[in-house]
């Protein structure tokens, strides 16, 4: 079994080694186009090409980089040339030298997903401060109610940058204007990381900035403007230092916050509600569908077949993937004891019914692990890599240390799960130890103390300055060679990435793109309103239509 695993990793290593240079070549071409536009004084198109490069490297294809000093320096230059050199000023707004008004910048927020929950729980817990939100690519109407309630209760506001009149640079100007009333800016950005760099290019005149490293296994931008990087786990902090060049004094851990759990149902009561036999042993897994990739013909359902065939009272419920054709044979072989559901924010009854929690695979789901552990459920995750260099691909978190069971291969996985199925006393004791550790680290006042330390560090450190921008150099080794295989990249082509930004381009570029779509036969992309009018106008027309039809 171990030899098979090693052979698989060798194949993935070879594939990654071949693909990374190709991806890097595309990334370099985008940065080069951005530089050409910058030299020509076309700052808006330079920013757009830089923005495309950010999304390509963070969400589409791994390029052997976790940061690009060249690209960040280019975005800084755009900001310094296009934004006024005005001083940030927010008098009488600090509380005993600590920030009172916090501005969070985020792409979008949804009802499901670990990072969305982290954001609104942060605001709910940090109740002594006012929190405002800037959405870079989502309308205010589309933000979930729980987020809006948290922001408005704190006396904060919610802004949408894609409704800003003007071009791409105008969004950065608008963000800078909004930030003048903030004591602290917190970046939750990823593929949208170019706008904040432009906005806060005059770093010495801006408020302190914290970057929340919520996607630590990916490329992101913002190193050059972040006074503190708040990593959610130890492996992320180590990668920030080794591969992003974050200074140790600016490199901190802020654990993911989870809500204090009050169990409303016993396991037996929860199983009854779900229509599950009280004598069954329920294995549970919850994550977004993209985290359950089928690799080399083996699905997440398939890896549980040996256990489920051995124990007829064992049941596996997986929330997130929905209807998956490649899981159907495993479901049939277990006579329906594998149940697969769509994503839902209503998961409490499932956590309360679970006897064992198994992490998503091949991509981890940290927040779900913490939430399951908060209910006293023992946790099991796979980590098939032999090298510590790949630790970022495994599950780790301050509150999981010493209690999370990590296994390397499928044989060990089945053995560990068998022990948990057979030994109820061990299950319960491990689950309770896990619950206590998570409560001590990730909830309420305990988490708040970690947050205060991050605020204090960002407030007291000198503003970060960038003295040089070394040329980007790719790394072809672990973990990079495995990222494209196991991480949920969207693999968007360049045409789509350019198309997504047509709304902030000048009219001649929009019209040219519209004609190109016609010639390519992409008639589904040919909406006149979405292609021929600027995005800010399109968003405002949408808002007007909603108010007219739904009264929103």
Number of helices: 21
Q: Describe the largest sheet.
A: 7 strands, parallel
Radius of gyration: 24 Å
The average pLDDT is 92
- Separation of the first and last Cα atoms: 58 Å
What keyword list fits this structure?
552 residues, alpha/beta, 7-stranded parallel β-sheet, 6-stranded parallel β-sheet, 21 helices, 45% helix, globular
Question: In words, what does this structure look like?
Answer:
The strands form 2 sheets. This protein has a 7-stranded parallel β-sheet with strand order 3-2-1-4-5-6-7, with helices on both faces. It has a 6-stranded parallel β-sheet with strand order 10-9-8-11-12-13, with helices on both faces. The radius of gyration is 24 Å and the shape is globular. It has 21 helices and 13 strands. About 1% of the residues have low confidence. The chain has 552 residues and is an alpha/beta fold. The protein starts with a helix and ends with a helix. 45% of the residues lie in helices and 11% in strands.
Produce a short descriptive summary.
This protein is of the alpha/beta class and 552 residues long. The chain has helices spanning 2-39, 43-60, 69-82, 114-125, 145-153, 168-179, 194-199, 234-243, 267-274, 305-310, 328-333, 348-353, 366-374, 410-422, 424-442, 444-460, 480-486, 494-499, 507-520, 528-532, 535-550, and strands at 101-106, 130-135, 158-160, 184-188, 209-213, 228-231, 251-253, 281-286, 314-320, 338-342, 356-358, 379-382, 405-407.
């Amino acid at each position: 079994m171990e030899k098979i695993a090693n052979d698989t990793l060798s194949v993935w290593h070879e594939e990654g080694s071949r693909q990374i240079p190709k991806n890097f070549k595309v990334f370099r071409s985008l940065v080069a186009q951005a530089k050409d536009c910058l030299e020509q004084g076309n700052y808006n198109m330079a920013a757009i090409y830089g923005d495309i490069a950010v999304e390509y490297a963070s969400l589409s294809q791994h390029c052997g980089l976790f940061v690009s000093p060249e690209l960040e320096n280019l975005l800084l230059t755009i900001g310094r040339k296009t934004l006024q050199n005005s001083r940030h000023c927010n008098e009488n707004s600090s509380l005993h030298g600590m920030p009172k008004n916090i501005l969070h910048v985020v792409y979008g927020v949804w009802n499901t997903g670990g990072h969305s929950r982290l954001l609104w729980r942060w605001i709910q817990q940090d109740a002594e401060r006012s929190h405002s939100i800037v959405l870079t690519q989502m309308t205010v109407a589309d933000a979930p109610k729980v987020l809006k309630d948290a922001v408005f209760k704190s006396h904060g506001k919610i802004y949408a940058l894609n409704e800003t009149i003007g071009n791409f640079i105008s969004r950065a100007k608008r963000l800078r204007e909004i930030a003048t009333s903030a004591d602290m800016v917190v970046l939750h950005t990823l593929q949208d990381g170019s706008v904040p760099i432009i906005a806060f290019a005059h770093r010495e005149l801006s408020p302190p900035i914290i970057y929340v490293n919520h996607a630590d296994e990916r490329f992101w931008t913002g190193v050059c403007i972040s006074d503190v990087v708040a990593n959610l786990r130890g492996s992320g902090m180590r990668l920030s230092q080794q591969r992003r060049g974050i200074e140790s004094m600016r490199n901190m851990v802020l654990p993911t916050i989870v809500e204090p759990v009050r169990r409303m149902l016993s396991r037996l009561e929860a199983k009854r509600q779900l229509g599950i036999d009280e004598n069954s042993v329920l294995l549970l897994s919850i994550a977004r569908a993209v985290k359950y990739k089928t690799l080399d013909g083996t699905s997440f359902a398939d890896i549980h077949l040996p256990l489920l065939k051995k124990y007829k009272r064992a049941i596996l419920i997986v929330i997130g993937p929905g209807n998956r054709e490649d899981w159907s044979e495993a479901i049939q072989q277990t006579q329906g004891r594998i149940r697969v559901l769509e994503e839902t924010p209503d998961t409490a009854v499932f956590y309360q019914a679970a006897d064992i929690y198994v992490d998503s695979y091949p991509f981890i789901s940290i927040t779900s692990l913490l939430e399951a552990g908060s209910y006293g459920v023992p946790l099991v995750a796979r980590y098939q890599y032999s090298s510590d260099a790949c630790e970022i691909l495994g599950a780790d978190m301050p509150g999981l240390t010493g209690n999370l069971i990590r296994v390397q291969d499928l044989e060990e996985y089945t053995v560990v799960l068998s022990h948990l199925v057979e030994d109820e006393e061990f299950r319960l004791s491990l689950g309770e130890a896990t619950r206590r550790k998570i409560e001590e680290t990730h909830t309420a006042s305990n988490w708040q103390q970690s947050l205060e330390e991050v605020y204090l560090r960002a407030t007291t450190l000198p503003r970060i300055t960038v003295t040089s921008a070394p040329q980007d150099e790719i790394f072809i080794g672990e973990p990079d060679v495995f990222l494209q295989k196991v991480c949920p990249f969207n693999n968007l082509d360049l045409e789509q990435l350019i198309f997504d930004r047509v709304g902030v381009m000048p009219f001649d570029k929009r019209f040219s793109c519209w004609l190109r779509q016609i010639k390519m036969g992409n008639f589904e992309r040919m909406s006149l309103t979405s292609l021929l009018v600027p995005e800010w106008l399109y968003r405002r027309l949408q808002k007007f239509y909603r108010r007219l039809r739904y009264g929103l």
